[in-house]
Design a protein that fits this description.
- The chain has 332 residues and is α/β, with parallel strands linked by helices.
- It has helices at residues 4-12, 26-35, 42-53, 69-72, 82-88, 119-128, 149-168, 187-207, 234-248, 265-277, 291-301, 308-325, and strands spanning 18-22, 62-67, 92-96, 101-103, 111-113, 133-140, 172-179, 216-217, 255-258, 284-289.
- Helix 9 links the parallel strand 8 and strand 9 (255-258).
- Helix 9 (234-248) crosses helix 10 and helix 10 (265-277) runs parallel beside helix 12 (308-325).
- It is globular, with a radius of gyration of 19 Å.
- The N and C termini lie far apart (39 Å).
- It binds 1,3-dihydroxyacetonephosphate.
- 1,3-dihydroxyacetonephosphate (13P) is lined by residues 21, 23, 137, 176, 259-261, 289-292.
- Residues 21, 23, 137, 176, 259-261, 289-292 line the site of 1,3-dihydroxyacetonephosphate.
């Protein structure tokens, strides 16, 4: 018997496909729109997100889309609910359920993600609107001292409790611990922090009885800080990221879908490709990119309905290239 959780995992984890993250919160989408001179109104957000979901053939490369709460209730130009439009394209609709991050008390520089209160009830509503999976993002600032042990443990506990609540509601959790790219730290420091973070996350998931077969991991790649003098080539990012993942992520996890986290679209694709060229791996290694999929399309759109087709073509191009990278065939 195929359980509902397994059916959702099967829908999300498909060869040559990845996930589109379109779940920017109010302040984040406002920042992205400002960069292209577009005001963040409900109608503009609807127009942008329905344009993406309606891109002809998107389901060839995209298996799932992470939506923001507002989008779950919005409709395409022809009145079709957006989650239904996604499903018709063969794309599983999901929902960001965390309530954002804030300072971790008594731990200067560290942050904690909120949103566990009432989560079970909220998930019931999201399921009725069509969501089959969820996402929760924890963030870790990096310095010589950060993140503190307290931040690593508190975020691991929150991620595991979120994942357990999701599975209890037949919703597949995407567990997203993001080691931030901001700062001038070395690649070695990023590797050290990522390893500590992932190790704590899997201990907590185990403690809470989360079925690893019915979740996806959405980690950051091991890269030097953005302000670090020496940037890394894809081969090194791939080698160091895989080393940390092999040490920390059990083979029972079906898929690892990276975030792009401020890498350029081309970097994010090349790094994913380099990892898959070193396969086979125990897990399917793919993408769950926000900016690295949307940026070029948003530049083409700039809020103009007349540019919709050009924007859709730009999105399809990044989706196709990342689909190729997810099987190690980008640029081949
Ligand atoms: P980026 O790929 O732009 O980092 O977004 C992915 C995401 O969902 C962050 O939470």
């Amino acid at each position: 018997m195929t359980t509902e959780l397994q059916a959702t995992v099967d829908g999300l984890v498909q060869k040559g496909k990845g996930i589109l993250a379109a779940d920017e919160s109010g302040p984040t989408i406002a920042k992205r729109f400002k960069a292209i001179g577009v005001e963040s109104t409900e109608e503009n957000r609807r127009a942008w997100r329905s344009l993406m979901l309606a891109a002809p053939g998107l389901g060839q490369y995209i298996s799932g889309v992470i939506l923001y709460q507002e989008t779950l209730g919005q409709r395409a130009d022809d009145g079709e609910p957006l989650p239904q439009l996604a499903a018709r394209q063969g794309i599983v609709p999901g929902i960001k359920v965390d309530a954002g991050k804030g300072p971790l008390a008594l731990a200067p520089g560290d942050e904690i993600t909120q949103g566990l209160d009432g989560l079970a009830q909220r998930l019931e509503g999201y399921r009725q609107q069509g969501a089959r999976f969820a996402k929760w993002r924890a963030v870790y600032n990096v310095s010589d001292q950060l993140p503190s042990r307290a931040a690593i443990e508190a975020n691991a506990e929150a991620l595991a409790r979120y994942a357990a609540i999701c599975q209890a509601q037949d919703v597949v959790p995407i567990v997203e611990p993001e080691v931030l790219i901001d700062g001038d730290h070395t690649l070695a420091r990023c590797a050290e922090v990522t390893q500590a973070v992932l190790q704590a996350v899997f201990v907590a998931l185990h403690r809470h009885g989360v079925a690893l077969e019915h979740m996806l991991l959405k980690p950051s790649m091991v890269v030097p800080g953005k302000a670090h003098a020496a940037q890394a080539q894809p081969a090194e990012v791939a080698e160091q990221t895989l080393r940390v993942l092999r040490r920390t992520v059990p083979a029972a996890v079906p898929g690892i879908n990276f975030l792009s986290g401020g890498q350029s679209p081309a970097e994010a694709t090349a790094n994913l490709d380099a990892m898959n060229r070193l396969g086979p791996h125990p897990w399917r290694l793919s993408f769950s990119y926000g900016r690295a999929l949307q940026d070029t399309a948003m530049q083409a759109w700039r809020g103009e309905a007349a540019h919709a087709q050009l924007a859709q073509q730009a999105l399809l191009k990044r989706a196709r290239l990342n689909g190729a990278a997810s099987i190690g065939e980008y640029g081949a």
